[in-house]
Design brief:
GO biological process, one term: demethylation
Organism: Musa troglodytarum
Family: Belongs to the alkB family.
Strand content: 25-35%
Order of helices and strands: EEHEEHEEEEHEHEEEEHEEEEEEHEEEEH
Largest sheet: 7 strands, antiparallel
Oligomer: single chain
Helix content: 10-25%
GO molecular function, one term: nucleic acid binding
Shape: elongated
Pfam family, one: 2OG-FeII_Oxy_2
Radius of gyration: 23 Å
């Protein structure tokens, strides 16, 4: 994974002038140290205002103090010396400097959350390192040994039930069989996923595997309400991505009249009036979309090889480069009856509410200077 270029960089050469920020090598989650433990160990020298990943390796961090003298004290006590509070680990430390923000287009620089709690969308949950590196390798080997179906820009595999892109639904009467044994462990772990509440007994029976080449994304959509139950799980492997979410307010959205192939992320069919949020999905992380986040927020992945995004935490601007491919495993439960969700504006199972919304939009669009664009509910499903 070639994930981030932090706004913090370490001094090079002989220059190592004190700053409030320390670049600490041989330290991080990949070597058994959580950010909380690191903050606690360095906090004895002064107030720590943040601990951040320096890169994608998990073995280097940036420790930010509020005062330069606290950073100097930590540097003197810990650089190339064992730290008792971190199991005697010897860390290699340099002072870190903050690079100025690059000048980029305002639509490109956009805040991105690392945690679902920071995202603030009800029903969206994210668990990092849901599977191990070895489990990830086994999953990829299994699907690479099976036949892929080629779409226009990516390849897919379907298990349990085939997703029909023409209708954006499934044929519930045509079961392809049980889900493959190589995902049995994942299905078991899903049962204890946060956010399920009292619905742990709902076993997933449909799996779509998507392979996205570098630069290929996902058009904005909501998974069809009538096709799948509330809980949708998406496991990211092989590479990272930024997933964005859009919420269209009442009166600015209606169901599509255009075909799937006519719709893309910059389409005029998408209203420009929406709330926009984003979250970083690293490899081996599992995303759960449920409730409002599943039924009312469009999700998509931009068609770009590099995203310049503004991180929510103080690290600031980062260039997130997509890997050669990303493979997602999306687990769903095929719905057995109509959807009765409270998000009727987006629900294809409740046509009377949908038709009323369409009529409202038509009336609004006939008013001078008040024309509202039509936005799709589903395009290419994850």
């Amino acid at each position: 994974m070639n994930m981030m270029n932090s706004r913090f960089s370490r001094h090079t050469g002989l220059k190592n002038e004190p700053t409030p920020n320390l670049f600490v090598a041989n330290c991080g989650p990949a070597v058994g140290m959580s950010f909380d433990n690191i903050e606690s160990a360095f906090g004895i020298f002064g107030k720590v205002v943040g601990v951040h990943a320096a890169d994608e390796t998990g073995t280097r961090v940036i420790v930010c103090f509020s005062e330069v003298n606290a950073a100097q004290a930590a540097f003197k006590a810990l650089n190339s010396l064992p730290c008792a509070d971190l199991g005697g680990r010897i860390m290699h430390i340099r002072y870190s400097v903050l690079r100025p923000l690059q000048k980029v287009h305002k639509d490109v620089l956009f805040p991105v959350s690392l945690l679902a709690s920071d995202l603030g969308i009800p029903g969206i949950y994210l668990v990092h390192d849901f599977i191990t590196v070895e489990e990830e390798k086994r999953l990829l080997a299994e699907v690479d040994n099976r036949q892929w179906r080629s779409l226009s820009k990516r390849r897919v595999q379907h298990y349990g039930y085939e997703f029909l892109y023409e209708t954006r639904n499934v044929d519930s009467k045509h079961c392809l069989g049980e889900l493959p044994s190589f995902v049995s462990n994942i299905l078991q772990k899903i049962l204890s996923f946060p956010g399920l509440g009292g619905d742990q007994n709902k076993e997933m029976d449909q799996l779509t595997v998507n392979e996205y080449p570098c630069g290929v994304g996902l058009s904005p959509h909501i998974d069809t309400h009538s096709a799948f139950d509330e809980f949708i799980f998406s496991l990211s492997t092989a590479g990272p991505c930024i997933m964005e979410f859009r919420r269209y307010p009442e009166g600015t959205w209606c169901h599509p009249t255009a075909s799937v192939n006519e719709i893309h992320e910059d389409s005029p069919l998408l209203s420009s009036n929406f709330t926009r949020k984003a979250i970083f999905l690293p490899p081996r992380s599992m995303l759960l979309m449920s409730g409002e986040g599943r039924y009312a927020w469009h999700h998509y992945i931009r068609h770009r090889k590099v995203n310049l995004l503004l991180q929510v935490d103080p690290v600031g601007e980062k260039a997130i480069r997509r890997s050669s491919r990303r493979v997602s495993f999306t687990f769903r439960k095929v719905r057995e009856g109509p959807c009765c969700c409270p998000y009727k504006q987006y629900c294809d199972s409740q046509p009377e509410c949908r038709n009323q919304q369409v009529k409202q939009n038509i009336v609004q669009s006939s008013l001078p200077l008040k024309r509202e664009a039509v936005c799709p509910t589903d395009t290419h499903q994850i």
